Amino acid sequence: MRYTKEITDRIIELYNTKVPILTIATELDVPERSIIAKLSSIGVYQKKAYVNKRGETPVKKSEHIQELATKLDCAVEQLESLEKVNKNVLVMLLKALDKASSATNPDPKSDKST
């Protein structure tokens, strides 16, 4: 299909008003991928952000391990064996470190003696 300026403007208008791509493709009798490609080529298409089943943006194990290394003030390489640990365990360790850190370093803003 040849996308004229009018057709392109119509696609952009529909897309920006949250009309599903399948509906736009059906209206123009073209494949969904064609609409996505056109919107992408003109910089309008926004890929859906991946979220897990809890609606959160997933965090990779390597990112958790990097954060642990920072909190423990050590090289990431020293924690490489943690790649085999369940992600929930890594999160639990991070929370425990945060809790321990806040217990030993109370927030100076909450100090009422000043």
Q: What is the number of domains? A: 2
In helices, the fraction of residues equals 40-55%
Structural class: mainly alpha
Shape: elongated
Radius of gyration: 24 Å
User: Averaged pLDDT, please?
Assistant: 87
Strand content bin: under 5%
Q: Uncertain spans, ≥5 residues at pLDDT below 50?
A: none
Number of E-state strands: 0
Largest sheet: none
State the order of secondary-structure elements, H for helix, E for strand.
HHHHH
- What is the distance, rounded to the nearest whole angstrom, between the alpha carbons of the first and last residues? 72 Å
Total of DSSP H or I helical runs spanning 4+ residues: 5
Which labels suit this protein?
2 domains, elongated, 114 residues, 5 helices, mainly alpha
